[in-house]
Amino acid sequence: MTDIQELCERVIIIDHGTIFFDGRLSEVVDRFADSKLITIQCESITDRPAEHLGKYGEIVAQNPGNLQLKVKRDRVIPVCKALLDELPVSDIDIQEVPIEEVIRRIFAR
Questions:
Q1: Residue 48, pLDDT score
Q2: Confidence of residue 46 (pLDDT cuts 50, 70, 90)
Q3: Integer Cα distance of 79 and 30 in angstroms
Q4: Which of 50, 34, 42 is nearest to 86 (CA)?
Q5: SS3 call for 13
Q6: What pLDDT was estimated at residue 103?
Q7: Is 36 exposed, middle or buried (0-12, 13-18, 19+ CB in 10 A)?
Q8: Are strands 18-24 and 10-15 parallel, antiparallel or unpaired?
Q9: Coil, strand or helix at 26
Q10: What are 22's strand-pairing partners?
């Protein structure tokens, strides 16, 4: 998928002989990904129980000093604000869900 992202602007997704999607690769993520990934760096993150942090979104990874959450697109800004207000965050990163996961979800339907 990395090669496709690097080389292709347009993608056609065919499902059972029918064109399911025809457009820009970036539109696939915009149209079919309902979440984004928020990663924060915070030294005291391991002190927080998973139940407490889970209120912000689905915990993808939690390591010492690092937390990654999958958050619904419409909740990204409020969740970031809440995390910044509640925790001593030293860095925050917001990314799209990997295109592989989006394509996998499309074909799982």
A1: 66
A2: low
A3: 19
A4: 42
A5: strand
A6: 85
A7: buried
A8: antiparallel
A9: helix
A10: 12
φ, ψ (nearest 5 deg) of residue 20: -90, -35
Backbone angles phi, psi at 15, to 5 degrees: -125, 115
Beta strands in 1-109 (DSSP E): 10-15, 18-24, 35-41, 58-63, 66-72, 91-96
Q: Which residues contact 107 (CB under 8 A, 6 or more apart)?
A: 15
pTM for the complete prediction? 0.78
pLDDT of 53 over the 90 cut: no
Place of tokens 């800004």: 77
Distance of CA 70 to the CA centre of its chain: 5
- Exposed, middle or buried, 89 (CB in 10 Å: 0-12/13-18/19+)? middle
The Cα 72–Cα 63 span in angstroms is 22
Do the Cβ atoms of 62 and 46 come closer than 8 Å?
yes
